[in-house]
Amino acid sequence: MTRRWTGVPRGRELARDAVESARAQKAITSTLVAVLAAVCFAILVTTGQAAASEAAVIAQIDSAGTRLIVLSDDGGNAGIQPDAPGAIAALSDVTWAFGLGEAVDVTNPALPEGRAAARALVGTLPDDLTLVRGRLPQPGEAIAGAGAAAALHLGPGLGTVQPRDVSAPPVGVVGTFEATGPLTGLRDVVLIATEAADLGTLRFVYALATDVTTVDRLQAALATSTPALHPEALTIEAPSGAIALRDVIAGRLGAASRQQMALIMGITAVIVAVTMLSATAARRRDFGRRRALGATRSALVAGLLLQTSIGTIVGITLGSTSGLTTLALTTGALPTWRFTAGVGGLALLLTLLAATPIAAHAAHRDPLRILRVP
């Protein structure tokens, strides 16, 4: 039974005809599948691996070093209020914040030859301070950095520390922590948990931005909104050098892979264009017959693009699956799902863009000239 073309494209009829045409032109469809599968596979195992490595490097840089802002009262004149860490931590651009008071020398009463610095702690310990023994302190208790614990000769059961001012009561040490990243300097400090209401002023406030892109905005906000008696006396340190280095590394890591991806996509567009020229040449008389029977040009263009999409989607699926499987088995570093979906979407879009002019040219040819018999 001959299909009746009314001239108006119908979705179901177009889809059915596209599937039948893809099956009938096995060579063309197989070529599209092979080309797109090879393209997606090549991009994922080269550019995709580079993107995964770049993301891992940037994530390591962004862990804390490029997001940490330190507010300090170097001269003791700023008067940072003890409620500042809580107010800063409540900001939407802040992951965590804590404050440190004035440094005092402490000793271990059992072994007084050791000495370390202690500071009042306002706020909770961040993830970069990892508890390695004991528990977190309650107000009035202390937790010692690994270096300070060794200097004070604190044993497995820990003990107490005595401030140099003998009139001050001893403080029980209930745990030790290891400091990493930009907070490494705190491993030689004893932190005494203190309620904000029991403290006069702070000397330091550490705040971690949620994202490296918010550091500049947060730095500007903290300069004017930090609770302090004299905010103009505050010293604010932000890792501007580390942020610049991050941008340079990200640009250099991604430049070569992006150029390679553009080259692969360009070659793909040429191959698709040649393939579609072959497909339209093989169906020239079929197009002329449909145009003579009343099929619109838009119906022919839509049918050709749907036929192209079938082979393209199959090729993208096969290539992406094999590429991700290869990366998982060889390197274990997989690109993000956004990158993978972006590669597939870009390949499909590029294929349709390459096929559209050829399909439009085929649809606009004179049906009488096509059907004329010499």
Automatic annotation (TrEMBL):
<feature type="transmembrane region" description="Helical">
    <location>
        <begin position="261"/>
        <end position="279"/>
    </location>
</feature>
<comment type="similarity">
    <text>Belongs to the ABC-4 integral membrane protein family.</text>
</comment>
<keyword id="KW-0812">Transmembrane</keyword>
<keyword id="KW-1003">Cell membrane</keyword>
<dbReference type="GO" id="GO:0022857">
    <property type="term" value="F:transmembrane transporter activity"/>
</dbReference>
<dbReference type="InterPro" id="IPR050250">
    <property type="entry name" value="Macrolide_Exporter_MacB"/>
</dbReference>
<keyword id="KW-0472">Membrane</keyword>
<feature type="transmembrane region" description="Helical">
    <location>
        <begin position="339"/>
        <end position="362"/>
    </location>
</feature>
<dbReference type="GO" id="GO:0005886">
    <property type="term" value="C:plasma membrane"/>
</dbReference>
<feature type="domain" description="ABC3 transporter permease C-terminal">
    <location>
        <begin position="262"/>
        <end position="366"/>
    </location>
</feature>
<protein>
    <recommendedName>
        <fullName>ABC3 transporter permease C-terminal domain-containing protein</fullName>
    </recommendedName>
</protein>
<dbReference type="Pfam" id="PF02687">
    <property type="entry name" value="FtsX"/>
</dbReference>
<keyword id="KW-1133">Transmembrane helix</keyword>
<feature type="transmembrane region" description="Helical">
    <location>
        <begin position="299"/>
        <end position="319"/>
    </location>
</feature>
<dbReference type="InterPro" id="IPR003838">
    <property type="entry name" value="ABC3_permease_C"/>
</dbReference>
